Every structure is written in structure tokens, then in C-alpha cells.
Model the fold of this input.
Amino acid sequence: MGPDYVKMRDMLQQWDVDEDGSDTECMAGLEMEFLAERLGVCGDDSCEALLPDIMELFDAVLADCDEACVTVKRMQKKLEELAA
Done:
């Protein structure tokens, strides 16, 4: 079974600019772990269970970037492409 794009999308949509920082700012990757920890539950699972798929998405976005900058907005856009 492949990644659960719906749960991943829902998790990324819960990004809070005040709590998590700008959604257009370059990330190092740990931000997704902090987001999963802050949210706790994503659907029926813990958000931490989504981290491997989220980090694969992070790596896919990074591979597509010329400037090596992954943002939440870019992750959301890539997720839409993959889910289509």
C-alpha cells in the first residue's frame, strides 16, 4: 500500500504560521518532526507514523528544486501532483 496522500495533505494543512513558522521559508527537515509531535494524531494514526512518507515527499521536493529549498507550500504542491 502506498502513502496516504489524504492524511499527508491534512497534516500539512495544519501547519500554523504562528506556531511552526512561515510556510514559504526553507526548511531543514526537522520541522516536519516538530509538526507531527505538536499535532499528535492524524486521522486514526499518530502523525509520527506519517513521517517516513512525509520525508519521502520532502526529498522529492528537494530533488525538484534548483535552489535546494523545501517549503510547506512546495510540499503541498508536489503532494497534489502525486495524488492526481
Notes: The longest helix spans residues 51-64.
